Amino acid sequence: HIIVVNKPSGVLCVPGKDNFPNLAQAVCDGFGCEMGRADKMVVHRLGMDTSGLVVFAKTMDAVRGMNAIFRARKIERKYEALVAGHVEKDEGIINLPLMRDYEFPPFMRISTDEHQAALVDLNAEEVGKKLLEMPKESLTKYEVVNREDMDGTPVSRVALTSISGRTHQLNVHLAAFGHPIVGDSVYGMGGIAAANGGLADGELESMVPNAARAAADVQQKAADAAANKGACVHAKSLKFRHPITKEEVSLSSDAPF
Questions:
Q1: Which phi and psi (to 5°) does residue 202 adopt?
Q2: Cα(228)–Cα(35) distance, rounded to whole angstroms?
């Protein structure tokens, strides 16, 4: 009924606009499914640069069951990542709402009253309805596994739990926290999305205070050390009740970094 794949970094989960090779099609070709189409097997996805465990459904009953599990958040997903700098506290929760970034679409940013106000004059027909969605509550739990060095640059290995499971949540939250994911070419230092999760310096201190925030030169050195390696973030473990057999499923895989 279901297939769980340990996805390597650099591989698309689902078919894209340019019809690049993707994991869903490979799974459909290799194992088949009663729906007859690769895109019908998808119940969640990982970003292209994220490695780790991905669930695909082979039957319609499994599709419905897994979709219900994800909607009700009855699945525990944990990630492992390397982030720039040494995170001061051993554990904590990042609680920052997310919104679509109207300045850098299709990316995400931390939502503020000012940025919400900027949406008022935008036309849904011109920018798309998704861009005008209300901000979404987003919670990320982090635990420091180890404080390390990468080519002489301080980095921290952290275990992450995406409590709310929003798009790009881990990347945006960690960038705003001052410890971007090492190798993140979108939300990290010099990335193509808004810096610091879209927050200005004053907003950083009021919304996500962190005296141990990694300095710009540390973030840059970490980015340089990870050049051509991709983002150091891995979907490490999954726990859920099988939608058909009702057995408890617990799977894990080691991070490749």
A1: -65, -35
A2: 37
For residue range 116-131, what is the model confidence (pLDDT) as tens digits? 888 877 766 655 666 6
Cα dist from 229 to 8, 9, 163, whole Å? 12, 9, 27
Residue 238 tokens read as: 């999954």
Give the number of other CB atoms < 10 A from CB of residue 247.
8
Kindly report the pTM of this predicted structure. Answer: 0.90
132 φ, ψ to 5°?
-100, 10
Residues 6+ apart with CB under 8 A from 235: 7, 46, 50, 51, 52, 53, 54, 77, 78, 79
Collapsing DSSP states into helix, strand and coil, what is residue 252? strand
> Alpha-carbon distance 117 to 49, whole Å?
32
Helices (H), 74-123: 113-117
Tens digit of pLDDT for each residue in 9-19?
A: 999 998 777 77
Give me the residue label for tokens 């230092």. 189
Smallest Cα–Cα separation from 71: which of 162, 2, 136, 165?
A: 165
User: 149 has which bridge partners?
Assistant: 154
Token digits of residue 24: 């869903």
